[in-house]
Amino acid sequence: MATEHGVGADAAKRFAAEKALEFVEPNMKLGLGTGSTAAAFVDLLGARCRDGLNLTCVPTSVVTGRQAERAGVPLTTLDAVGWLDLTIDGADEVDPNLELIKGGGGALLIEKIVASASDRMIVIADASKRVDTLGAFPLPVEVTPFAWETTRAVIEQVLESCDVDGRETKLRLARDEPFLTDEGNMIIDLHLKRIGDPNALSYALNAVPGVIDSGLFLSIADAAIIADESGVIEVMMREG
Ligand code: 5RP
């Protein structure tokens, strides 16, 4: 049976990843996302590389880098290439304007740097990620470990004047310890339920000292491939 988190979701991720392969051309410089959907893409990409497709790829996390290496995908760093043709990555939420919440896997900072240094970013996602309004998924905010509790208190103050429906904040944990990103930072997840004005919220959060960045990816994605267990059901494209 198809379920949001089970076999059906795995098939959907694979369908979206397969479709994304159609956008990959020989000799491209590619950004590789993080998460289970991005992993499905890296898997398929590895098979193409082993068959002789020439690519240069930049991973967005240690985990993706290890997977890509094992799969035979040639890797480099963003600084070595400077700019990328295309980044393919998953998302936690995709709204009708192609605005995103990302960072469920904790790689939001590098994902945003890599996607922003790409001519195009294509999101691959199963249908459960498609939302009318962002905010049901807790918004990850990456913060410095230094004085993270003070930063959290300031974030809570900032949220008082934001158009959101929930204001609970939670430090992300991994095995009862603070979760640390690849850069050694912490993540505070904001349980906002509904984000009325993503641009205003993003601006307000990024103005807090101690906040490195949030998982709001605004005006970054150019397209989104949405699939369910039967196949690709929608390819969303940014206008203009
Ligand atoms: C990692 C991310 C992921 O792309 C996002 O969490 C979606 O993951 P998945 O494809 O496993 O649902 O932003 O930081």
Verbal overview:
With 240 residues, the chain is α/β, with parallel strands linked by helices. It has two domains: 7-131 and 219-235, Rossmann fold (3-Layer(aba) Sandwich), CATH 3.40.50; 139-213, ACT domain (Alpha-Beta Plaits, 2-Layer Sandwich). It contains seven helices and 15 strands. It has helices at 7-21, 36-50, 62-71, 78-81, 108-116, 148-160, 198-206; strands spanning 29-32, 56-59, 84-89, 93-94, 100-101, 118-126, 139-143, 168-171, 173-174, 177-178, 186-191, 211-214, 216-217, 223-228, 231-237. The strands form four sheets. Strands 2-1-3-6-14-15 form a six-stranded mixed beta sheet. Strands 8-11-7-12 form a four-stranded antiparallel beta sheet, covered by helices on one side. Helix 1 (7-21) packs across helix 2 (36-50) and helix 2 (36-50) packs parallel to helix 3 (62-71). The termini are far apart. The model has no long low-confidence stretch (mean pLDDT 96). The chain binds ribulose-5-phosphate. Ribulose-5-phosphate (5RP) binds at residues 33-38, 89-92, 102-108, 111.
